[in-house]
Design a protein that fits this description.
The protein has 5 helices and no strands.
Length: about 180
């Protein structure tokens, strides 16, 4: 079920007690998501820096009059290209991870408020049954989105690692051997 449809089907609060959620309940989850998003942001920042480095290499290759840059990259085109591609591929899942992890926080708040409603006595039995059904659907949606978000972050880290390895190989092959 879509997000807008879920919002339309959700019953409004009857009392402020339905909305009052202590900070100790939601704060740890928000802190964990903040750390994951910080990690994802660092992956994205370093990947974009690496993509900029590859762009600089390409610019130098195109404007190099002495042929030095061409000699350095000659034989390493596969590694330079592979590094650029995997660094680009690591940025895309990071962006989606950030979106889905924020989306999961929204569903977490819906779940917490649903549980809070089920504890309050001013809801009828029929309303509590409907709230239980809503809670089950919301938990399933949140679980699926959380698993997808986690998979995206793992994919981004793998692509970043591959890009980093390509860059290290290029530098090891370019640097002159020491005696």
């Amino acid at each position: 079920m879509g997000l807008l449809k879920e919002i339309k089907n959700w019953k409004p609060a009857k009392l402020l007690n339905d909305l009052d959620v202590p900070e100790t309940i939601w704060r740890p989850d928000f802190d964990i998501v903040d750390r994951y998003q910080g990690f994802a942001g660092e992956l994205m920042r370093i990947s974009l820096l690496g993509i900029g480095g590859v762009g600089y290499l390409i610019k130098e290759l195109l404007t190099d009059k002495n042929g030095i840059c061409e000699q350095l990259i000659k034989g390493n085109k596969l590694y330079v290209g592979g590094g650029a591609i995997t660094l680009c591929l690591s940025v895309v899942p990071v962006l989606f991870h950030r979106f889905y992890s924020t989306y999961c926080l929204y569903y977490l708040l819906l779940i917490i408020r649903s549980l809070k409603r089920l504890d309050n006595l001013h809801w009828s039995g029929e309303q509590k049954v409907a709230e239980n059904e809503f809670l089950t659907r919301t938990r399933n949606i949140q679980r699926d989105k959380e698993l997808f978000s986690r998979r995206l972050l793992i994919d981004a880290a793998i692509c970043f690692g591959a890009g980093f390895i390509f860059v290290v190989i290029v530098f090891l092959r370019i640097l002159p051997p020491t005696k």
